[in-house]
Specification:
Strand order of the largest sheet: 1-2-3
Radius of gyration: 24 Å
Structural class: alpha+beta
Number of helices: 5
Number of strands: 3
């Protein structure tokens, strides 16, 4: 069963010991805005899937991060989220992975569940309807002589 959080309130997500971020809910509006983000659009067509994933995750995080705890500058002083700081945070591999697992993948898993919940209206699934007329009789093949 799909449970809806009708409050649409931000949630805290632990990304590493002592590091947590407050994120907006992963909504359709947020995903659509991220897909049309200039940084995502600027990824070259020849880029790898990994490069695309990083660009998308950073663009999504720049929109989603509202606050954080346990993140500081090179001198250890706490800093507030900014686009540059969010990008630098996601350049840390374990943080990127945790962001993908705790935030992004939940939305993608829901998308996969949605895709698997109904039979396809066309194609080779059991829910497909016939689109071609039945053949009345077999066609004759040419004889080679």
């Amino acid at each position: 069963m799909l449970t809806l959080d009708l409050t649409n309130a931000p949630h805290w997500h632990d990304l590493a010991p002592g590091v947590r971020v407050q994120l907006r809910p992963l909504t359709t509006a947020l995903m659509v805005a991220t897909r049309s983000d200039p940084a995502v659009d600027a990824v070259p067509e020849a880029a790898s899937e990994e490069e695309r994933a990083v660009a998308f995750a950073k663009a999504l995080a720049r929109r989603a991060v509202l606050a954080w705890e346990g993140i500081g500058d090179a001198d250890g002083n706490p800093i507030d989220p900014s686009p540059e700081a969010i990008d630098a945070l996601l350049d840390v591999w374990p943080i990127f992975e945790a962001f993908q697992l705790t935030y992004v993948s939940k939305g993608l898993l829901l998308e996969q569940e949605k895709n698997a919940s109904a039979l396809s209206p066309n194609g080779p699934s059991a829910g497909a309807s016939d689109t071609a007329k039945p053949v009345r009789k077999l066609a004759r093949t040419a004889r080679h002589g």
